[in-house]
């Protein structure tokens, strides 16, 4: 039986690759040879020319926020715009909540 595939992302090339998951193997980008970031099996890559969405994605992945399926479906809430990211980063700074937790909050009111 084939193993399920998951997404690996190269932020500098704005590329995503579906590959079998292997925690022991470091993946590299076929374009630039930089290490790929494991994004998760519920990841959907933005269009390559959508710079704002890739900047948002860069913040999420560098903060350790992944797109992994949960027992009840998808990965849960993830900000989609830079404005939503800025709101959550401001909230994290004011509340002393870890950045990764603040980024996945639906409401920061």
Task: Describe this entry's structure for a reader.
This protein is α+β, with helices and mostly antiparallel strands and 109 residues long. 28% of the residues lie in helices and 15% in strands. It is built from three helices and three strands; from the N terminus they run βββααα. It has helices at 51-62, 82-95, 99-103, and strands spanning 5-10, 15-20, 37-40. A three-stranded antiparallel β-sheet has the order 2-1-3, with no helix packed on it. The chain is globular. It starts with a strand and ends in a 6-residue tail after the last helix. The mean pLDDT is 90.
Q: Please state the CA-atom Rg, rounded to the nearest Å.
A: 15 Å
Name the beta content range: 5-15%
Report the sheet with the most strands, covering strand number, pairing sense and barrel closure. 3 strands, antiparallel
Structural class computed from helices and strand pairing: alpha+beta
The N- to C-terminal Cα distance equals 47 Å
Please supply descriptive tags for the structure shown above:
109 residues, three-stranded antiparallel beta sheet, 3 strands, 3 helices, alpha+beta
Task: Describe, in short, the structure shown.
By secondary structure, this protein is of the alpha+beta class. Helices cover 28% and strands 15% of the residues. It is built from three helices and three strands.
């Amino acid at each position: 039986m084939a193993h399920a595939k998951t997404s690996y992302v190269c932020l500098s090339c704005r590329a995503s690759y579906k590959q079998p998951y292997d925690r022991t193997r470091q993946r590299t980008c076929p374009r630039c040879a930089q290490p790929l970031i494991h994004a998760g099996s519920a990841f959907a890559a933005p269009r390559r020319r959508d710079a704002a969405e890739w900047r948002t994605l860069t913040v999420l992945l560098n903060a350790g926020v992944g797109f992994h399926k949960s027992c009840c479906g998808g990965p849960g809430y993830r900000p989609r715009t830079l404005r939503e990211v800025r709101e959550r980063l401001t909230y994290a700074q004011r509340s002393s909540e870890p950045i990764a937790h603040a980024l996945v909050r639906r409401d920061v009111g």
